[in-house]
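Appendix B, Record 12. Input sequence as logged:
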Amino acid sequence: MPIGIGIDLGGTKIEGVIMDVQGRELVRKRASTPSGDYDATLAAVAGLVRGMEENLEQPSVSTTPVGVGIPGAVSQATGLVKNANSTCLIGRPLGRDLEQAIGRPVRLANDANCFTISEAVDGAGKGADVVFGAILGTGVGGGIVVGDRLFAGPNAIAGEWGHNPLPWPHDDERPGPECYCGLKGCIETFISGPALARDYRQSGGEDIAAVEIAERAGKGDPGAVRALERYTERLARALASVINLLDPDVIVLGGGLSNIEMLYERVPELWRQWVFSDEILTRLAPNHHGDSSGVRGAARLWAGAE
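Logged structural output:
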């Protein structure tokens, strides 16, 4: 029987998977996310779950619970969604409404937490006691898993390193760019994909995406090389502060910028300047499951990783 059903509720797509206890994917389906429409989003998730069950080549799993990764968090005080990039979810009782729409128990978690669960259980962090998952994409998220169990914290914000200030800032980094959270100088405003693109553009480069900047740097383009060097040094500072606070066994990178291969050699070389230890055993690793990590982690939300 399945270990669970996972849903990755993104801003543009909704992905679903049914997994067995060995982590094998039995069914996977995808649908578009109705833009800005809460009720239509509920219906789309419910339809995706039903569609996966209809394609399952084994007895009905109509009682299997559903784990859902969301681009935000659930307030422990109100049970309503907060801090969500998909603004139509904010202030909504998404868990309760999905349970009614699907007709079974639903558990919600931040999408970065789902990524970290997946990579900790059977991905790049398998076998490690403490895993920190860092998402480097449109935004900068993070999650913490200890002993294959998610640590979310009493405020449901554990791992939100992107909304701490960039540590050890240089003079030209103060006070820093404005962040959507209302503050200035957050880590996210320096090491997200849009942040790399902005830095390259403000330094005289073209208006291109972060991935293309990395490609140009690999071909020796001077402006792209300098932008990527600044990015790498800032990432090293930011992760050094994570190591000083959490001291994880492994840090697993996800998101589009995690595909920049030089980060895995250069960042550990640089973070030695700021980590408060004579020896650093923390490993920096690329993710194992790629874009599938989020939905696979969501399926594991009912499998002991709480």
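The chain has nine helices and twelve strands.
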